[in-house]
Amino acid sequence: MNKIYRYFTLSMVALLGLSLTGCSEDNLDTNPYNKSGVNLVAFGPSPILRTHEIRITGTNLNNVTSVVFPGEGAVVAKANFNSGDNKDIYLNVPDESVPGKIRLLVGNDTVATSITPITFEEPIEITSVSPTTGLSAGDEVTVKGDYVYNIYQAIFTNGVTGAPVEAENFTYVSRREVRFQVPLAAESGVITFNDGADWEYEYPTALEILPATYTGINTKTPDFGQEIKITGTNLHTVESIMFPGGVTSEFTVSDDHNTITTNVPAATKSGAATLVLYSGASLTTDELTLPTVTVTAFSKTKDIKVGDKITITGTNFDRIESITLPGYGILADEEYTISGNTLTFTVPEGMTDGKMVIVQNSFISIEQSLMMYSDAPETTIWANGFECIGWSGNQDLAWGGYDWSTVQADTQLKFYYNKVNAGSWGCISLRHGDSWGALPDPIPGQYDLSDDEGVLTVTLTQGVIDDLIANNGLVITGDNFYLKKITIPVAETTLWAGEFVCSGWAGNQDLAWGGYDWSSMASGSTLCFKYKKITAGSWACISLRHGDSWANLPDPIPGQYDLDSDEGVLEVKFPQNIIDDLVANGGLVITGDNFILTKVSAK
């Protein structure tokens, strides 16, 4: 049992943060009276007894047509005010009132609401709360005692703030009994009561609130947009459903609260869904596997030329939303074809080095770096594509992303770019990784870009290289540019140049039988064979042999290299065992079919 008696003198409870408890009618603060319109500044006394007179103080109160007290039917029309003017209203508190906030109406519109609740003098006595076990959200709880209709809030356990039910929302109110429903956010734990003033009571028996549970889903492999059913218990306490990527979906809950019906959003990805409860807790479903675009192979990713046909193999290509090529943009539907698990497109004019992006939706995409063919003796060290606006930074070549100790003094780096906003100012600034600090002389703070598209060439002195090594590599920043690729010169040595027309497995022995000193070749060197097909579009191959009997070279050199492109450079790495074989067996013979060889170089 809980029984507390309190004694009060006449008081006024102020609104908008103004407390007038204990004030008489003659010393009310009138500073708020300069406000325009109807305002409820204070009311009192509070606590009060039902049917007793209360005074409401404010501005323009002569416009008020009715006063609504908390509680069903607790409305006093202007005709029933005891007295009033523009500053004060005197009226009796309706017997139906419960603790809560007072509202002033003009017509049917609420124009002012008290910040603090009206409370009542009679001491609250609670003798029982039932039931206390097996409760679910929505179940009715009954509180018995005396003057329990003076309870302002019943607060269930939920985190720090609790889950309150206010008196205005009680389902039944009388002097000796009140009833209310368990709120959706309630959790097992204590229940406390207050009168809106300084009385508070914690019931000694904790309440058991049955939580929501997840038991399963009708399919783990749905399609986008497909209806799915999630099963469990007390699922009416689910506030939202979050699919991977933070995407929500509308849902309905069955009458028995055991089934949720919803649709998989069009923009999401594979993974588990999250059931977010009103209490703030959450449940996780089984993993959902959605039809997702995959890529297993590209026919070509390097030495690509305009007009080349690129074939991509994979799955679910019918789900593709867009394909973006570096330097070119989005391919139109008629610019590529899909046949089963194969996607084919022809390289358009304007395509550059960079990332090709295949998009299924905003959460599913595939990127592949592509490099165009170049006759220049340089190699691309970066081609991921980077749009720089407002001094963002690219750190791909910092923090171990590139080994700057392999770069020689006076090497020229080339930065291929175009401006994001043509005709506007733009700049590239090179920094080192540590705190994005400035590089030493002769590197300036920034390079202003005069052309809308071009190549910035920067010479790296030994001092700059040493700084990059010591301070964690290169950071690229600036404003208003899109960086396509960065290249570095290749230390290339021409071993042979001319024209060798190879048809029907003829052989070139210029680099055999003393034509080249293979003992001078460094282990791991890459040999570059520049070629052009005799008959474009037809099959062709290059086969590398040693001089003695034109026999095959040992592993890892295959018997032949089929040539996919009509023109290009075949690059072959020569490990030490291949060099040893060439030294021992009369050097290199080049044979095959349907190609014209114009240069052999090593790098």
Automatic annotation (TrEMBL):
Residues 1-24 form the signal peptide. It holds the Pfam family TIG. The keyword Signal applies. Keywords: Signal. The keyword Signal applies. It comes from the Bacteria. Residues 295-361 form the IPT/TIG domain. This is IPT/TIG domain-containing protein. It comes from Xylanibacter ruminicola (Prevotella ruminicola). The lineage of its organism: Bacteria, Pseudomonadati, Bacteroidota, Bacteroidia, Bacteroidales.
